[in-house]
Design brief:
Layout: H1 2-20, H2 29-35, H3 42-57, H4 63-140, H5 159-171, H6 176-202, E1 209-218, H7 225-233, E2 240-251, E3 254-264, H8 270-277, E4 284-294
Antiparallel strand pairs: 1-3, 1-4, 2-3
């Protein structure tokens, strides 16, 4: 289209130029067009080229149309989602509204019952206050002409009983009793201390123990591991107890002996075990402590 426009403008300019020439040089428009080389069939060739490439690569859509189509699709999806949400919330909204009204009715009933209970409590409290005030007035009202409330009178104590109590008080020794009580308390205290010390002496003392896992390595793969374990277990002292053992592969066909033991900390230590086991030089190459835990 641009080329056609340029050709048309060029042709018009040429016609103007011819009109400016003398009459003898003027020619018809048909003669001018026959002498010009204009590609009038270019749109047909462009259409044919477009169809060819569409057949080869599929139909091509302009970028503006693609963007518009994507926007329209998004709008349509949004409308569908809104319609679905409105349709779904319609039934749910009615159910929620019904549940809300039921709850409100229950709350109103509870509120009314609470109001009734409060009113009953207020009336009972007012009655109680009136009774208390009436009783206070009766107790504090003075006697007028002997017509006041008769207050209870206590009978005077018998004089014989009061004399006996006075004699009993005179017989009490206020100084000698404290010394007797103190001596008795000291005696009980010493007796309890002796019982506690005797009980504590009979109780066995707590013995600190540890669990040790040893790795005993042989010289090579030809070492008799059964004989090596026998030599290790032959170490017997007070406070040492051997446990389970197993053979763990090290590499190149060599296996190490991993053995567990429980020792008393005050009697047996790791240094002692290493010295005693390494004495078997024919079987043992080295001894390592793999794990050490307090019990």
């Amino acid at each position: 289209m641009v080329r056609a426009a340029l050709a048309h403008s060029f042709c018009s300019e040429q016609q103007r130029f011819i009109q400016r020439q003398p009459k003898r040089l003027k020619m018809t428009a048909a003669e001018c067009l026959t002498q010009e080389r204009i590609w009038f069939d270019k749109p047909h060739y462009d259409e044919a080229e477009r169809q060819f490439y569409e057949r080869m690569n599929g139909p091509t859509q302009p970028k503006q149309d693609t963007g518009a189509n994507s926007i329209l699709q998004d709008i349509a999806r949004a409308r569908e989602n809104i319609q679905k949400s409105l349709a779904g919330s319609g039934g749910g909204g009615a159910a929620d509204y019904g549940e809300l009204t039921a709850r409100m009715k229950n709350l109103e009933l509870e509120n009314q019952s609470l109001h009734n209970v409060v009113e009953e409590l207020r009336s009972a409290l007012s009655k109680m206050e009136s009774r208390v005030s009436a009783l206070e007035k009766r107790l504090t009202a003075p006697t007028v002409n002997g017509t006041g409330p008769a207050s209870p009178q206590k009978a005077p104590p018998a004089p014989a009983k009061q004399e006996e109590e006075d004699e009993d008080e005179d017989d009490i020794d206020l100084f000698g009793s404290d010394e007797e009580v103190d001596e008795e308390a000291e005696r009980l205290k010493e007796q309890r201390l002796q019982e506690y010390t005797a009980k504590k002496a009979k109780k066995p003392a707590l013995i600190a123990k540890s669990s040790i896992l040893l790795d005993v390595k042989p010289w090579d793969d030809e070492t008799d591991m059964a004989k090596l374990e026998e030599c290790v277990r032959s170490v017997q002292v007070d406070g040492l107890l051997w446990g389970a053992s197993k053979l763990v592969p090290v590499g190149y066909g060599i296996k190490k002996l991993q053995i567990n033991c429980v020792v008393e900390d005050d009697k047996v230590g790791t240094d002692f075990l290493e010295e005693e086991i390494t004495k078997f030089e024919d079987y043992v190459q080295s001894v390592d402590v793999a794990a050490f835990n307090k019990i």
